[in-house]
Amino acid sequence: MSRLGETGRRMGSLVLSWGAVKHGAADPSDGKNVVLHEFAHQLDFENHAVDGVPGLATREQQLSWSEVMRSEFASLRTADETGMPTLLNTYGATDPAEFFAVSVEAFFEQPRALRARHPKLYAELRNYFNQDPVEYSGEILGEEQRLSS
């Protein structure tokens, strides 16, 4: 399997496959975007750890983040282990750093679906990024997602 993208805390760079970049941009609401994914890893490195926790300003933010992310990560792992369908890419069940990265992809590419199916996760990301992508998203919801919104 060829690499789609790579970054590391000590790399000092971000490497992306041009083909993967174009593929991610071709469908802006499929939840798969290597640019968003790898930049999420860069944000994760802000606190000098690879743990799925970006630099958060206050202890209150850290506690809220930890509670929501721990619960959502556990739910994704359970879905992955049992084969249950999920909005989030099950690659995020690998570890908390990958969970954060796939959550960022969904936040920007599938904000309406994420808000409907994972409201606490959506709220944490909305607060962290200080924006609400639902307001400008071109995401087209399927019938099932429209009914649950």
In short, what is this structure?
With 149 residues, this protein is mostly helical. The protein has a domain at 36-131: Collagenase (Catalytic Domain) (3-Layer(aba) Sandwich), CATH 3.40.390.
Radius of gyration (Å): 15 Å
Number of helices: 7
> Percentage of helical residues?
55-70%
- Unreliable residue runs: 143-149
User: Outline, from the CA principal axes?
Assistant: globular
Strand order of the largest sheet: 1-2
Q: What is the CATH H-level superfamily of the domain at 36-131?
A: Collagenase (Catalytic Domain)
Kindly provide the name of the CATH class of the domain at 36-131: Alpha Beta
Q: Strand fraction band?
A: under 5%
Number of distinct beta strands? 2
Coarse structural class: mainly alpha
The mean pLDDT is 88
Biggest β-sheet strands, sense, barrel: 2 strands, antiparallel
Distance between the termini: 37 Å
What's the CATH architecture name of the domain at 36-131? 3-Layer(aba) Sandwich
CATH level 3 topology of the domain at 36-131: Collagenase (Catalytic Domain)
SSE ordering = EEHHHHHHH
Question: How would you describe this structure to a colleague?
Answer:
There is one protein chain. With 149 residues, the chain is mainly alpha-helical. The chain has a domain at 36-131: Collagenase (Catalytic Domain). The chain is built from seven helices and two strands. Strands 1-2 form a two-stranded antiparallel ribbon. Residues 143-149 have low confidence and may be disordered.
What labels describe this entry?
149 residues, mainly alpha, disordered C terminus, 4% strand, two-stranded antiparallel sheet, Collagenase (Catalytic Domain), 2 strands
